[in-house]
Design goal:
Helix content is about 40%, strand content about 0%. By secondary structure, the chain is mainly alpha-helical.
Length: about 70
């Protein structure tokens, strides 16, 4: 009969399309991939940019907390 196959193709970040099934879909369905830029600014809830010092400080704190959790 009438069978329909569904797949969620929501937003994804691909670090490589080689050997990645989403890369195969991209080529077969002629999707447009967008390259991300190096910068990834953080915004406050009011839409203003987070202060650069505060941004870097929060990243450093999160990184150190992650290291603390994985230490043996």
């Amino acid at each position: 009969g009438n069978k329909v196959e569904v797949a969620d193709l929501g937003g994804s970040v691909l670090t490589s399309t080689l050997g990645n099934p989403l890369g195969v879909l991209d080529r077969e369905l002629s999707y447009t991939l967008h390259t991300l830029i190096q910068q990834c600014p953080l915004y406050r809830v009011d839409g203003k940019l987070v202060d650069e010092y505060l941004d870097k400080k929060r990243v450093e704190v999160a990184y150190n907390e992650l290291l603390d959790k994985v230490r043996l």
